[in-house]
Amino acid sequence: MNSANKSELLQKFSQLEQPLLDEIMTQSTFRQLEEGDEALRTGQYIKSTVLLSKGLLKIYREDEEGKEFLMYYLEPGNACALSMMCTARDEKSQIMAMAVEASEIILIPSHLSESWLAKYKSWHNFVIASYRQRFEELLLTLDSVVFRGLDERLLFYLKRHVKVSGNLLKLSHQQIADELSSSREVISRLLKKLEQAGAVKLHRNSIEVLNLEGV
Predict the structure, then answer these.
(1) Whose C-alpha in 3, 48, 77, 89 is 20 to 30 A from the C-alpha of 20?
(2) Taking a C-beta distance cutoff of 8 angstroms, is the pair 84, 49 a contact?
(3) How many CB atoms are located within 10 Å of the residue 33 CB?
(4) pLDDT tens-digit profile of 72-122?
(5) Residue 34 near residue 104, CB atoms below 8 Å
(6) Is 183 left (phi over 0), alpha (psi -120 to 50) or beta?
C-alpha cells in the first residue's frame, strides 16, 4: 500500500489504534470495485469482515423474483455488521452488497477479526458500534415500511439518499419503485407532486433535491 492510501486509511478509521491499523494494512486484502460490482451475494459463505475505505455500498435483500429491499448504505469508515456476524458464525450471507460507485473494500480474514476483539479495545468498540448503528438503521427502515404510507416512505427514502449522496440523486423512477416495492407509475406520480411542491426537480435519470423539509 502506498503512502497516500495509508493516509486515507488513517483518516477513515482514525478511532482504531495505530498497531491495529498497521495490521489491517499488511494482513488484509484491498479490493477495487466498479459501479455495479457485487461485494457480497446471497448464499455466499463469508470468510472475511468487510470494511469500506472508499465509495458507497448498497446493502439489500433480494427475493426469488429479483425484487430488492433496501436495508442501508455503507459509507467510507464503516464496516458491514452482517458480514461480521456471518463470518463469526460461519454462515451463508443472506444479503447482497453492491457498489453504487467506484469503491474500495477491505477484507479482513475471519481469524484476525476474532483475535482482534481481545487484542485491541478499539476494534472491540468498533464492532459493537457497527452492530448498534446497523440495528438502529434497520429499525428506521422497518418503521418506514410498517407505519408510513408510500408518500412518507418516499420522503424517507429520498432523505436517506441525500444523506449519503448529496442533493443530486442518480436514481431512475423504476429503481425507486423496485426498492420501495411499488410501481414506476405510482412513484412517478408522487415525484411529480413533490416537484410541484418545490421539493425536487426531476431530470432524466436523476432527481435534484431542493427542499424536503415541511413537505
Answers:
(1) 89
(2) yes
(3) 21
(4) 889 999 998 888 888 877 778 888 999 999 999 999 998 999 999 999 999
(5) no
(6) beta
